[in-house]
Amino acid sequence: MKKIIVDKLPRIIKNRKKLEKKLQVKITHRGKEVYIEGEPEDEYIAEKTIDALDFGFPFSAAIGIKEQNFEFEVINIKEHTKRKDLERIRGRIIGTKGKTLQTLSQLTNCNLELKDNRVGIIGEPEYLKNAGDAIVLLIKGTKQGNAYQFLEKRQPKSIGDLGLKE
Asked: CATH class for domain 2-67?
């Protein structure tokens, strides 16, 4: 049985039945504590999914952790900079009217969310590393265009047809 402390409890309660069905675990709560009961690997996936919901991701993106084998990662802005003007750094990551965050999301095929001084990323493992690296570049002061160029150069190549299927 795992215990998680959650800030956005109403989101988890509202989706509890769907979460229990899809994640194959039993979810109970007391105060801000959420308890997960099930098989160990199901508990692990449920913990990641509930953390993603608590972070602010939509249900469809968070459930992708189970259904599409996505990974969930959090980058703390304070770990990558010594600057004190964190509002400015958050502004650089979001961009004008959210355009930078949206462009990063499209280039990396990942879902991105910004909460306080942390950036959450949900996506396929091969894309997750590139998305994290691009966010760190922006935190360190790289221009948005250079971060986009970095992502375009490091796109994972899709495996073509090897002629094995008829």
From this structure: alpha beta
